[in-house]
Amino acid sequence: MNIFSFNYIEQYQIPRVVKVWLLIGLIMITVQVVVGGITRLTGSGLSITKWEIVTGTLPPLNAKQWDEAFDLYKATPQYLEINQGMSMSDFKFIYFWEYIHRLWARGMGFVFAIPFFIFLFSGMLSRTLIKDLGIVILLAATVASFGWIMVASGLVDRPWVSAYKLTLHLSLAFILYSYLLWTTFKVFQPRPSLIHNPMLKKLGKVMLVVLGIQIFLGGIMSGMKAGVIYPTWPDMHGVAVPKLVFNSEEWNVDNLMNYESNLFAPALIQFLHRTSAYLLTAIVLWFFVKGIRSGMGSLFNISLYLLVSMLVIQVLLGIFTLINCQGTIPVGLGVFHQAGALFLLTITLFVYYQLRIAEK
User: Fold this and answer.
1) Tens digit of pLDDT for each residue in 242-284?
2) Residue 10's pLDDT band (boundaries 50, 70, 90)?
3) Do the beta carbons of residue 77 and residue 158 sit within 8 Å?
4) What share of the chain is helix, strand, coil (3-state, %, to 5)?
5) pTM for this structure?
6) Cβ proximity of 33 and 339 under 8 Å
7) CA 68/CA 72 separation, integer angstroms
8) How many other β-carbons are positioned within 10 Å of the β-carbon of residue 255?
9) Please, are residues 223 and 166 in contact by the beta-carbon 8 Å criterion?
10) Percent of the chain with pLDDT over 90
11) Cβ distance 329 to 321 under 8 Å?
12) Secondary structure (DSSP) of 92-121
């Protein structure tokens, strides 16, 4: 066939190799989110001070190159204010995680882009899938761009990246994952059993929105290291709500932007994160009860049990992560908690897909 003419196929005729490729993309994004969590919690994100798309693919290969990379890091606020005097071996450790994070992102670009054009010119993609994958590519480029904007925010005036820019980067990564996941659902299940239940559809939409808010607040909380300020549960150092949250004088832009120099912003974000978690738990349990009673079918019921199970795991991970924030955030628990948010989002989107598709 002519390489510039495309024979489009129907959505339900997508070849198996394309389906496997989509699943690989989801797995790679999941790994990237996990590695990103490790990078953040180990304080590794600012170890590489340059954004070099091509030459940055290779790490320092000799002592001279390592010295040059270390000297660049020594000029950053993070080194001068936090890590001054660190050894070369410690620097190599944080460099490793940031390097892996960037290298994996480059790898995703190749794994996604090359097969995409092969499938496109081979006529193995439907018109709908081509449009969806085009949006995925744009989202991926946006995530990468904001990754550098996030890193740059910690190379000039402050010793760490901005919690808000970090959260924006993380949120965009979750949006990218969600869009690719939704696209994969449409490829694997183009004609699902129709579920006609307006109440469940509305409740499912609310559940998804609250989960999105919860993930966003979690990103800010992690960026502010707010767990270290109030590492207790179910109270916050003996009270349900810290008094300074009710102090009108604390409510100003300066406190919110310069969160590292006051307790107001961390207290507020942690309180909101806890509150949204309680709200999400109540909504999911209500949705579960209504869904089980609706008699929608075995696949839907299985997804409901998965949803509740993952919610319980995520709540426990959140509590254990919080109460172990004694001076620093525990890397293992923090990473598992972030990964848990992605898994919970996956199941929630699958449940919602079963409901949303009926409206088309």
Assistant:
1) 998 998 889 999 989 888 888 999 999 999 999 999 999 999 9
2) low
3) yes
4) 75, 0, 25
5) 0.91
6) yes
7) 6
8) 17
9) yes
10) 60
11) yes
12) HHHHHHHHHHHHHHHHHHHHHHHHHHHHHH
Beta-bridged to residue 239, according to DSSP, are 236
The tens digit of pLDDT for each residue in 280-314 reads: 999 999 999 999 888 777 888 899 999 999 999 99
- Rounded CA-CA distance 214/284 in Å is 13
Contact, 200 vs 304, CB < 8 A?
Answer: no
Exposed e or buried b per residue across 1-23, where buried means at least 16 C-beta atoms within 10 angstroms of its C-beta: eeeeebeebebeebeeebeebbe
Tell me if 295 sits within 8 A of 282, measured CB to CB: no
- At residue 360, the pLDDT reads 44
Closest CA to 120 of 134, 136, 139: 134
CB contact at 8 A, 287 and 207: yes
The angle that helices 16-41 and 88-121 make with each other, rounded to 10 degrees, is 160
Contact 66, 92 (CB under 8 A): yes
Task: Give the 3-state secondary structure of residue 159.
Answer: coil
**3-state secondary structure string, 47-88?**
CCCCCCCCHHHCCCCCHHHHHHHHHHHHCCHHHHHHHCCCCH
Per-residue confidence (pLDDT) for residue 3, from 0 to 100: 39
**82-107: per-residue pLDDT in tens?**
888 889 999 999 999 999 999 999 99
Residue with tokens 């839907």: 300
- Which amino acid makes up residue 173? A
- 3-state SS class at 153: coil
Q: What are phi and psi of 86, to 5 degrees?
A: -65, 150
What does the alpha-carbon distance between residue 199 and residue 207 come to, in Å, rounded to a whole number? 12
pLDDT digits (tens, 9 = 90+) for 136-194: 999 999 998 888 887 877 777 777 888 899 999 999 999 999 999 999 999 998 876 66
Q: What is the Cα–Cα distance from 88 to 81, expressed in whole angstroms?
A: 17
Would you tell me how many other CB atoms lie within 10 Å of the CB of residue 219?
25
